[in-house]
Amino acid sequence: MTDPSGIDPLVEGPRTRLRALHPSEYRTVFAWYNDPELVSPFDRFSLDTFEGFVQDVESASDDPRSLAPRFVIERREDGRLLGLLGHFTPHPVLSTVEVWYVMGAREERGKGYGSEAVRLLVDHLFRVLPIERVGAVCDAENVPSVHLLERVGLSLEGTLHRALFHHAVWHDVRVYGVTRSAWASRPTSA
Ligand SMILES: CC(C)(COP(=O)(O)OP(=O)(O)OC[C@H]1O[C@@H](n2cnc3c(N)ncnc32)[C@H](O)[C@@H]1OP(=O)(O)O)[C@@H](O)C(=O)NCCC(=O)NCCS
């Protein structure tokens, strides 16, 4: 099924679909990407230029390490853009992929859209990549993100103590992951 943007969705869940960004959405997404509230959990210090951002987005498919957004989360019901998703290879040797996620539409948070979208992304990554693990890291104090990862079905694997210098304080970072076999055997209601 084609979505209202005319771009074939990558995957669809009950309430959301993931698809590539359309150039007409770059300004909206760029604004989210540079919104301090949204990106502060990632601790990005520098603002991107719009031109650099577009270049990053458009070259991301050729670069597994790219931190650029790869997909938007779109609500199926009305085509509203809800957020962004990315994934990247964090290590030159280890065979693992990490996901990241932001719900740019703040008033739509807490309604389960983020969890559904991340679940769709993890599913997709296991389907298309020959990897055994998908992971995510998050600030231990980022309660919504911790809840999202646990709800989606990633397990807490450990803590990187004082690994993130954020708002002038050292923070612990939680490491989450799920193996291919654990994902395949997770309860279907998860
Ligand atoms: C993290 C984020 C993507 C969650 O998206 P969302 O659509 O609100 O998530 P969901 O509605 O699917 O909720 C996921 C879980 O988080 C909980 N949650 C959501 N917002 C919350 C809040 N403000 N406080 C506490 N818990 C919250 C939900 O209750 C749910 O947990 P539960 O299953 O135990 O009830 C969103 O808060 C966000 O964009 N934050 C800013 C960017 C960010 O921190 N990204 C992650 C960086 S590691």
Which labels suit this protein?
single chain, Aminopeptidase, alpha+beta, 6 helices, eight-stranded mixed beta sheet
Structural summary, described in words:
- The chain contains 6 helices and 8 strands.
- The chain is an alpha+beta fold.
- The chain has a domain at 11-133: Aminopeptidase.
- It has an 8-stranded mixed sheet.
- Helix 4 packs across helix 5 (143-152).
- The relative contact order is 0.14.
- The mean pLDDT is 91.
Per CATH, the superfamily of the domain at 11-133 is: Gcn5-related N-acetyltransferase (GNAT)
Order of helices and strands: EEHHHEEEHEHEEH
Mean of residue pLDDT values: 91
Major sheet attributes:
8 strands, mixed
- The total of beta strands comes to 8
Report the portion of residues in β strands. 25-35%
What radius of gyration results from the CA coordinates? 16 Å
CATH structural class of the domain at 11-133: Alpha Beta
Low-confidence stretches: none
Question: Strands of the largest sheet, in order across it?
Answer: 1-2-3-4-5-6-8-7
Work out the helix count. 6
List the helices and strands and how they pair.
Elements (H helix, E strand, L loop, with lengths): L10 E2 L3 E4 L6 H8 L2 H4 L10 H10 L11 E5 L5 E8 L8 E6 L10 H16 L4 E7 L3 H10 L2 E12 L2 E11 H5 L6
Parallel strand pairs: 5-6
Antiparallel strand pairs: 1-2, 2-3, 3-4, 4-5, 6-8, 7-8
Helix pairs in contact: 4-5
Coenzyme A (COA) binds next to β5, α4 and α5.
